[in-house]
């Protein structure tokens, strides 16, 4: 599996690089910039398997609530369920902000789907 993610915030959309050959344990150390206001409830992260010319396969999606960002200034490190057709199929994790700042990483790691 060669996964990548598409992150959507209302009408804004960003695509990660493809984690070629990383299977079910990819890690993306990428940063994306979105314009936000306090009425934006969540980020939607869709995970796909890149299949080159035959079309990409949808793996699952996770919704990341943004309320902690507006209330506390950051999204806490934690795991979020990845679902497909309303069934649990894994998780995506946000690593700690300290790690992200020290290493200049986006702080998101995907695993176990």
Automatic annotation (TrEMBL):
Q: Which UniProt key words apply to this protein?
A: Calcium, Metal-binding
Query: Does Zinc-finger show up as a keyword for this record?
Result: no
- Pfam families reported in the protein's UniProt record: C2
Coiled-coil segments on the chain, per record: none
Query: Is the keyword Calcium assigned to this protein?
Result: yes
Mind telling me which InterPro entries this protein's record contains?
C2_dom, C2_domain_sf
Where does the C2 domain start and stop, copy by copy?
1-79
UniProt protein name: C2 domain-containing protein
Query: Whose protein is this, by species?
Result: Rehmannia glutinosa (Chinese foxglove)
Lineage here is: Eukaryota, Viridiplantae, Streptophyta, Embryophyta, Tracheophyta
